[in-house]
Write the structure tokens for this entry.
Amino acid sequence: MHELPVTEQILKVVLDHARKAEAHRVVHVNLVIGDLTTFVDESIQFYFDFLSRGTEAEGATLHIRRIPARVRCHACGGEFAPDGVDWRCPHCGGLGGEVLAGRESYIESIEVE
Amino acid sequence: MKKVEVVTDIMSANDQIAQENAETLRAHGILTVNLMASPGAGKTSLILETARALDGRLRLGVIEGDVASRIDADKVAAAGIPVVQINTGGACHLDAPMIRQALRALPLDEIDLLIVENVGNLICPVEFRLGETLRVMIASVPEGHDKPYKYPGIFTAVEAVVINKMDLAPYVDFDLGALHEAIRGMNPRAEIFEVSCRTGEGIGRWAEWLWAQWQAYRPAK
């Protein structure tokens, strides 16, 4: 349920940018969210629909681009995508490594009229 | 239709206040630990055992986060530690504005180490920076050894993992080696401590690590 305060923030940023662009309606909101974050897409959309009522963003569609986790193996330096419980490097069999991608959470752009 | 570039982190409002908190804490020379774990993992017990082990070498302060009640704050206050209780009233995590508020109620000039006990939850607290110096989680033995794979968010975010309730290991299906391997794999830099708040096992090494962290932080007080 932490998506509620997070979505309030998303809406605020969206409306700030829409007003700066002198738009009267926000049609699309493009978000980028990594798979290692704890955000649930449906939950964000649900709160967004609720919170945006009566604003320029009412009825806007959220497009959430998911970034899969990517890890750099600390044994061989190779990069790979961990899969569920499998954090083993497919190149050398080493276990896990440094997280390179998957923790993103930002508003990329909005499309307005 | 017109496309407007935004590129703003969705946590930016919280992160900005977290940054201000970090500056306030830095100015007072306070090392701050954001302590996260599931309910019942032993967060309050670890705070009390840490205070005992440090034995006055560092002056402690505590912020207790719970959905409701003052139970934890009362336990900490009974140990003579300055404490502020935050009741989130349903919210599943602490955020930076709550900490900013709580800091106003603490004697900051009399604290070296501030431990913030987050709401018991392995998911939501991860995204909300508070202004802490270190993020630490407890993974207790009865929760099982496969938790890192189920909650990669928290296990990849912390600087240290404290494995608590080691005294229960013989009585439950728990593979210590598998838990170490999972943590190492996901977060090779994380320090791992094996402790029991009940028997006191391992608390010394954990407290020494906190002491070393504080020495490295070395406030200009």
